[in-house]
Amino acid sequence: MAFLDELAAREAAMRWLDERTQLGTQPVKQPDVSSFPFQGERVSLLLRQQGICKPRQLEAALSIRTTWTPPGGKPPYEDAEGPDGLVRYAYRGNDPEFFENRALRLAYQHQLPVIWFVAIEPSVYLARYPVYVVADEPDQLRVALAISEDQRFLGVPRADEVDRRRTVQRLTNLRLHQPVFRAQVLGAYERSCAMCRLKHVELLDAAHIIPDSKERGTPVVPNGLSLCSIHHRAFDANVLGLRPDFKIAVRRDILDEIDGPMLKHGLQAMEGVPLTLPRRQAQHPDRQRVEERYEEFRAAG
User: Fold this and answer.
1) pLDDT at 72 over 80
2) Exposure of 96 by Cβ count < 10 A (0-12 exposed, 13-18 middle, 19+ buried)?
3) Average pLDDT value for residue range 285-294
4) Cα(297)–Cα(251) distance, rounded to whole angstroms?
């Protein structure tokens, strides 16, 4: 396949993913997106054993993958946000000239869009696209990624460009951390509200126990709750709280109100109801965070 087909193949892959991920909002399993049809051939897209996927028909890397790491585990590669707000993606191995690393570098040189599969469970991924390699850092065995077109336009901020770095960080949070956090939390709670058991995914949010504006408000499952929209708003507003024994508390003045069925059944009836917890102990709410947030709830009451 000629290099001129590189962009067409990527556009075809992204359109194909749009149909299977509801425009990138729904997770996919690795076997379901391992390859896609293009010009009469099957083109590799997400390989089980390779972090950087360069199909045999293309010259440059088409996709990259971040593997699943259990809470508290150590990932095999450190894919993390840098001080400039851009995500760093590690080379494979220690040789910058390894063929997969060269393929990733070629995507950078020609500014070709790449698809990034971020694992939220074993063999379950959230697809982020288009992603662009905006800097190559071979001395540190990694590249820098722009998570969106607008972040790509901003480029790599210099150390003295504080405002631009903040903008890049905000975009990274918006385009990467928030969608991945939501997918991980909803997956842990089996796509239902932890308070009322509602299972309509389109009405579910990932709520932070400690807000992301605070130091301990990191986007990790033990700092998250899967909540329907009404209970998310109520939790954020300290109308509802979560006790350290993982039972729901309702603010005293709300319990004393008289109103319609939503107040009675949607809020007041939540008093003392046990939270539905994830199956995995490691995904349960972090008790220290819950205690800290409960003290805030009590102060609000």
Assistant:
1) no
2) middle
3) 97
4) 8
For tokens 């379901």, the residue is: 32
Q: Are 183 and 120 in contact (CB under 8 A)?
A: yes
**Residues of 136-155 as b/e, b for ≥16 C-beta within 10 angstroms?**
beeeebbbbbbbbeebbebb
* Rounded Cα gap, residues 257 and 254, in angstroms: 5
Residue 83 corresponds to which tokens in the numbers above? 């001080």
Cα distance between residue 107 and residue 111, in whole Å: 6
How would DSSP label each residue in 15-49? HHHHHHHTTTTS-EEGGGGSEEEETTEEEE---SS
* Distance, C-alpha 288 to centroid of its chain: 23
User: In degrees rounded to 5, what are phi and psi of residue 76?
Assistant: -65, -30
Amino acid in the structure at residue 11: E
Tally DSSP H helices, then E strands, for the chain. 9, 14
First to last CA, the chain: 66
How many C-alpha atoms does 174 have within 13 Å on its Cβ side? 11
Mean pLDDT, the chain, integer: 92
Q: Which domains does the chain have, with CATH numbers?
A: 3-183 (2.30.280), 192-300 (no CATH)
Indicate the pTM of the whole model. Answer: 0.86
